[in-house]
Amino acid sequence: MNLHKFYYKDYFMDIDFGYLLEKESKASKEMIQKMQKRIEEKNANIQKASLHTTIEKPALSNKDFQLKVSYPGLVTGIGISHETGIEGEFKLGVHFDYTYGMPVVYGSSVKGVLRNAFSDSEYILSLLAKIIEKDNVKALMKDIF
C-alpha cells in the first residue's frame, strides 16, 4: 500500500474545501460541520482497519524503541505541513514520500522527542555517561538546542 496516496489523496478525496474561501456564514458553519463529520467517519474506518503483522508488538514500557529501516529507507528532516485545520483530522507529525509511500519524519519531530528526553536529566546521564565528563546536562542541552 502506498501510504502517500492513501493519506494525501484518498483521505481527503470527498472533502470540500470551498468553505475556506467563504466568509463566516451559516452555510460555511454547516459545511464545516459536514466536513468534520466526514473526517470523523474516515478516522473511525482507519482505526477499525488492521494491517498484517508478522511479529508481536511488545508493550512500550520505556522511553525508547528501535526501528529497522530497509530499502528504500526512511527520510528525516524534510517535509511539508499537511494539516488542513479541519477539527478532528489526524495530526501525524510525519508525511509519506510521494514516490515510495515511505514515512518521512520531520526534523522538528525528532528535535521534539530529544527535547522531551532532556527534561529527565538522570535518563540523559545514563545514556551519555561515557561521553559526558560533568553532570551538566543543561549545558549540553544548550549546545544541542
TrEMBL record:
Domain CRISPR type III-associated protein: residue ranges: 71-119
Residue ranges the record marks as coiled coil: 25-52
InterPro entries: RAMP_III_fam
Biological processes annotated in GO: defense response to virus
Keywords: Antiviral defense, Coiled coil
Name of the protein in question: CRISPR type III-associated protein domain-containing protein
